[in-house]
Give the backbone structure.
Amino acid sequence: MTDEKHIDYSVFDGYEKDRKVKQFIRRNIFERSLDTLWGWMFLIAITIGVSVGVYKYGVVFGILIIAAIIGGPIVFSSLLNIRIGVYLTITIAYIIGLLLMLLPDVKIGLVQDVLIFLMVVGLLYRSYESDNWDGFKTPINSVVVLWIIYNLVEVANPIASSRVAWFYVARPAVAYILLFYVTYTMLETKNDIKGILNLLVGLTAFSALWGLIQFFNGYFPFEMNYVISHDAVHLVFISGRWRSFGTMASPAQYGIMMANLTVLIPLLVKGNGSRIRKLLYMLTAVLALLAMVYSGTRSAMVVIPIALMVLVLLAKNWRLYLMAVVVGMVFVGVMFMPTDNYHIRRLQTTFNGEKDESYMVRKRNREMITPWIMAHPMGGGLGSTGVWGQKFSPGTFLASFPPDSGFIRVAVELGWIGFSFYLILWVSILLKSVIAYLRVKDEELKSVTLAIICMFVGVFVVESAQDVVGKIPFNLLFWVFTAILFKAIKIDANAQSDTIGETEKHLAQAAQ
């Protein structure tokens, strides 16, 4: 028999106190909405605290409080619901230019990193609790993990001029890759894929319209102030024309994004969607095409013909072959026609090769840097070139070198070893997706898969002329699109397995 006098009941006191605290909070906050003596005391204390803060630190303190009230629940929701976090992260990436211009003192990049970190923490916790790690089991795991590890190892690069630069570049690089796993997990059904694509198309329409407004009516005052204060006039004013940059701050990145969506959106129209949805999609594609042209980004104009060639090769449709011939003839005609139109002449210079001065400058730079790359297997370290190089290691050889393309930037910063890993990553994504695409049965998912493959091949080619995947917003959206691509393939494969399983079950029952 248990001797009661030896039982220490005091251990239950903590549980009783905890229960009473929870009841107090529920009664005063949730049930009575702070309409109690304690609730009013709490509100008065908060009011006095905010008043003192505004008096002491100014209006900025009040603005921060409002931002915390609005942003707090959103950030917390990202931890509990990764769909909210993913959608918010994509939205920020699309309107990053507007945010930087309107909120110059807010670290927008850090906000994105925090959101992604919260989503990853939430995903890891739920995966651990449910013992379900399917979100981390993707067809490209090995190459993605290899790429992450190599970027982290670069902190020990013996010739790197700045470890701080490595931190600033590696932080978003690794975080955005982790977004791939978060998005891959979030997309569970075909409707989830439609939802995220609808968001991307909607944001594209908004950004394209903004770019058209810039072209026809000029920049808004806050945009012009930003351009002048950041000494960026030479980037947006070329040959007597102001280039549109929409909601993305950089006309080069804006043009590439609009070209990518010009390729993607028309291929998404196929399916069982409503006529209004299809009409809005096609209208958005036209707006994106115009925005691409008005951005003045010549390399963006390469994406469309490359994507069209890939489409013709993979689609196996005689109508597409005929369309490709017609479009090819029109394209050749535009390339060689005499004209005074600024935009057509700029398009023509894209393929002038050695007749184009900027092409010759990039060619000489590549010839000059190639021996250096071959002599440095690990490169000069992340952030050793471009803007980060000029900020953290000014005066060095690499800081003054202009990395005009994504391939050259990777080769210079990560060496020929890192460049090899980068190519392996690209080849793995393209090869595995193309092989899987040939087995996809669902027409809508097949269209999504084909659209992203065509877009990616165009981006891969353009990477040789411009840094696309290494710059916001596509450095983030690249991994979102990759997640959509492989999850569409996964959902179709699961559906086919279920169909086969049902067929076998019916056959077994019939045999009995």
